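Appendix B. One record, verbatim.
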Amino acid sequence: MKRTDYISWDEYFMGVSLLAAQRSKDPNTQVGACIVSQDNKILSVGYNGMPAGCSDDEMPWERQGEMLETKYPFVCHAELNAILNRGTTSLKGARLYVSLFPCNECAKAIIQSGISEIIFCENKYAGTDGVKASMKMFEMAGVKMTQYRPSGRKITIEV
């Protein structure tokens, strides 16, 4: 008889997203993203961080101050990194699992890449203009938005 306590696809892909987030060097916010095909194959993974070739040690990680002294003009978000990491694979009809609801800039890239659904863990910036803009664009473009509902199962990775 086969096991019956295996994790669901949503648990698996959100778990990959949350694990990817642990690669982020950002001291305040770690976000991960996992893009999945319609037949449940991982197409790409990303996390928030500095662009390739830009030293994590030389770039600012501050959240406040003059714009160029903060991380904001420099950090690539997890969703954009996942889209850019995909190689030549089409993302048309794919699902994006992401630990934080996408900002308006990432929403544009998500829509343009053909992703048809986002499954997000939390929306801690709900009510902000950026999230409102994301939601408006997703609705207009027909991108389904689903909040991940944890099963309550604890998944531990041990080596």
